[in-house]
Specification:
two-stranded antiparallel ribbon; about 35% helix; extended; about 5% strand
Length: about 350
């Protein structure tokens, strides 16, 4: 009797051969793998089963609690620092639950996470009428360092060594671009602007929300004026001051952005500020005047002595230029550009749009 030995077939298959290749085959890049290999579902929800009586019963108990939570803002808080073992098991309806697991030991009872930042926890508790636990405060100020504390303790003004832009440099560029943008609106008063408004060719920001006659025939407003060595104001027809109205709206919008940045900078004790409307101006009443960022009329000598503190210097420009290094490899994004969430038409970022 003969025995035939079967040899395994030679194959070129690899664990990844069933997938569309991309940047993920050259480096660890989970996002790129998903972008190349997911298949969107365009159907409806008809394949899903509806909720059972048990589920509806449990949900009814929760919805009743939602009413109480909306009244208080936060129903209850556990001040035991959250971890996977911090709390006993919690249930909505233990007898009827098939899938269990709550964040704390009771439904809608919030947890605190001071490891991230103690100030954020105490501010949140006090906002909803809860007194922070003194023991938690003591532990996370005397014996434990939070994540935010560690970051802020390591912060240095010399961030340029690490490829970062220091806040003082950001402020100088803010002063520059904001002041140049203000000039684009033109002089404080303009007969051309008034004529264009009357002809329906020029409008104000969010005109539909303004509570006036939208003709401005008898309306007055104040505009800045530099006279006799002082910064003051004068009253003019609002119709003639449309440029200044638009400039005010632009300033208000810019301030929202600065406020947002400052919330991020608060932890390191830094803040940005819009300079005075007369700073570094070359159009309108401030043209020819030297105004400091805090709104003082200054001499030419003081202006020259502080110009590198108030506006970007050649050294600043050289440094910023050194950061803006181009990246030409497909799928890579330069460090000074925020990476897009996806490519054009929902394609992967490294999609081969042009084939030569």
């Amino acid at each position: 009797m003969s025995t035939e030995v079967l040899e395994p077939r030679a194959t070129t298959a690899t664990p990844t051969s069933a997938f569309t290749p991309g940047l993920w085959t050259k480096e660890i890049n989970v996002r790129n793998f998903i972008q190349h290999n997911y298949e969107p579902y365009y159907g409806d929800e008809s394949f899903l089963a509806g909720p059972t009586k048990r589920t509806l019963s449990i949900w009814k108990k929760l919805t009743d609690m939602f009413v109480e939570e909306r009244k208080k803002g936060v129903l209850d808080v556990s001040q035991i620092p959250s971890s996977i073992t911090a709390h006993d098991a919690g249930y909505i309806d233990k007898k009827n639950e098939l899938i269990v697991g709550l964040q704390t030991d009771a439904p809608l009872k919030r947890a605190i996470m001071p490891n991230g930042g103690l100030k954020m926890v105490t501010n949140g508790l006090e906002a909803y009428g809860f007194k922070p636990d003194p023991q938690v405060i003591e532990i996370f100020t005397k014996y434990r360092k939070t994540h935010n504390s560690g970051v802020f303790d390591a912060y240095t003004d010399d961030v340029r060594r690490f490829g970062g832009i220091d806040v003082d440099t950001l402020q100088r560029y803010l002063n520059l671009h904001y002041s140049l943008s203000l000039d684009l609106f033109g002089a404080e008063t303009s007969t051309n602007a008034a004529n264009y408004f009357g002809a329906g060719l020029k409008g104000r920001f969010q005109e539909e929300r303004r509570d006036d006659d939208h003709r401005l025939r008898d309306s007055k407003r104040l505009v800045p004026l530099v006279a006799d060595g002082l910064i003051t104001t004068r009253e003019v027809a609002e119709l003639a001051a449309l440029n200044e109205t638009l400039r005010d709206d632009y300033t208000a919008d810019c301030q929202k952005g600065v406020d947002r940045w400052n919330r991020a900078l608060a932890g390191v004790g830094k803040a940005l500020a819009l300079p005075h409307v007369g700073f570094h101006r070359n159009v309108g009443t401030f043209s020819g005047s030297r105004v400091s960022p805090d709104g003082r009329l200054v001499s030419e000598a003081e202006w020259e002595a502080n110009i590198d503190r108030w506006l970007p210097s050649s050294r600043d420009a050289e440094f910023i230029g050194s950061l803006m290094v181009g990246v030409h490899e497909r799928g890579k994004v330069a460090g000074w550009v925020a990476p897009p969430s996806n490519g054009i038409h929902a394609k992967p970022v490294d999609y081969e749009y042009v084939r030569l």
